[in-house]
Amino acid sequence: MSLANGRPYLATPGPSVMPDRVLNAMHRAAPNIYEGALMEMTASLWPDLKAVAGTQHNATIYIGNGHAAWEAANANVFRRGDTALVLATGRFGHGWAENARQLGVKVTVTDFGNAAPIDLARVETALRAEPNARAVLATHVDTASSARNDVAALRKLMDDLGHPGLLMVDCIASLGCDEFHMDAWGVDVVVAASQKGLMTPPGLGLVFFSDKARQAAKSSDLRTPYWDWEPRADANHFYMHFYGTAPTHHLFGLREALTMIHEEGLENVWRRHARLAGAVWAAGEVWGQGGAFALNIKSPACRGHAVTAMRLSNGDGTRLRRWCEHEGGVTLGVGLGMAEPGTPAADDFFRLAHMGHVNAHMTLGALAVMDAGMKALGIPHGAGALEAATRAISQG
User: Fold this and answer.
1) CA distance 88 to 86
2) Within this chain, do residues 342 and 357 fall inside the same structural domain, yes or no?
3) Is residue 25 part of a domain?
């Protein structure tokens, strides 16, 4: 007998839980794409998207996923032979680097491993070694490792050294979950996507860019008609926002998601994510007192508020993940980039997302299912994790 029958909970770090309001907003007939209400609704997206990113500059939407947003940013910023200095704190930093490399960009990677944020001392060495790098690429929160980087400190270091490079930041995991201020922190390009903190199905890649980045992009020789952000930002015809037919129903969903964020208040959204993340971490710390369980990032100050990467041993991560899905109705995320696929160690890692449309009972419920799974599977772990999580929720 399984206890998974009922409404399942997808606790993976994207696609995240889609609110009924978003789904209902998308459940409609195809609209007129040439005039009328769709144009007016789409025009309302730009200021709200910019508010979530913390920018007064430029915003574009591409029909694609986060990888598409990477490519759009790279194609606009770089010229063949330019150098990109990539600061990798997990699998997705390396993924963005590989995308640039395949476009003909020279890539220099400073790898901080899978369990730590960037080290500014090492970043300084890398910046001095590449004084003419076209741009510095970093993740705000790496979806695989859950490491969160201090973007403002990175910008300050670049400024202190007088480094001319643009600062490009991957906010795919963090936008709408972790506090972020593109303009105040001096970020030139931000990439994001619809399927995480923005609570909309996968399919929209977002790129925000400063006027400085826009000017630099004029000399890029990698832009193709589809990826070129210039006509999208200054679209003189509606279709140019998307270089063709608009992703109509995704736009309806995104409009409703942004309305929900506005109703809650962006700062309250950030606080909610921090509170729920704290409950997960409190449970994890207790579980780790009686077995191999560990949170991937040691310092709470360096953990993202959208997802928490975890590990067990002896393949217990996969065993627990499958038990939670098939017996408890909770789908956890697989571990990505933490060990070579197919090796025994790869089955030790997994992730719990707490991003987007998530509340206390969902997070506490997922933790309770995990606790029950470890008991059912005989996985050693510390006692009292759920009590610790509820204290974190109640005390803030």
Assistant:
1) 6
2) yes
3) no
Return the structure tokens found at 4. Answer: 């998974």
DSSP-assigned letters across all residues of 21-60: HHHHHH-SPPPPSSSSHHHHHHHHHHHHHHHHHT-SSEEE
d(CA 173, CA 192): 8
d(CA 66, CA 107): 19
Residue 254: its pLDDT value, please?
98
Domain that holds residue 349: 9-16+265-395
What pLDDT, on the 0 to 100 scale, is given for residue 1?
A: 77
CB 268 within 8 A of CB 261: no
Task: Please give the distance of CA 129 from its chain centroid, rounded to a whole number.
Answer: 29
Helix (H, G, I), strand (E, B) or coil at 120: helix
Integer Cα distance of 108 and 122 in angstroms: 13
Q: What pLDDT, on a 0 to 100 scale, did the predictor assign at position 162? A: 98
Residue 136 pLDDT more than 90?
A: yes
As a dihedral over the C-alpha atoms of residue 208, residue 211, residue 215, residue 218, rounded to 10 degrees, the angle is 30
Omega of the bond prior to 15 within 30 degrees of 0, cis? yes
SS (H, E, C) 194-251: CCCCCCCCCCEEEEEECHHHHHHHCCCCCCCCCCCHHHHHCCCCHHHHCCCCCCHHHH
* Predicted local distance difference test score (pLDDT) of residue 370: 98
Q: Is the pLDDT of residue 325 over 90?
A: yes
Q: Which of 232, 262, 292 finishes a domain? A: 262
Does the structure show a pLDDT above 90 at 205?
yes
Averaged pLDDT, 33-43: 95
Q: Is the domain of 113 the same as that of 50?
A: yes
314: left (phi over 0), alpha (psi -120 to 50) or beta: left
Q: What is the pLDDT of residues 229-271, one digit of tens each?
A: 999 999 999 999 999 999 999 999 999 999 999 999 999 999 9
Residue 68: the pLDDT is 98
- pTM (predicted TM-score): 0.97
Condensed to tens digits (0 to 9), the pLDDT of residues 343-356 reads 999 999 999 999 99
For residue 384, which of 373, 371, 365 has the smallest C-alpha distance? 371
242 and 355 belong to one structural domain: no
* CA dihedral of 94, 100, 102, 108, whole degrees rounded to 10: -60
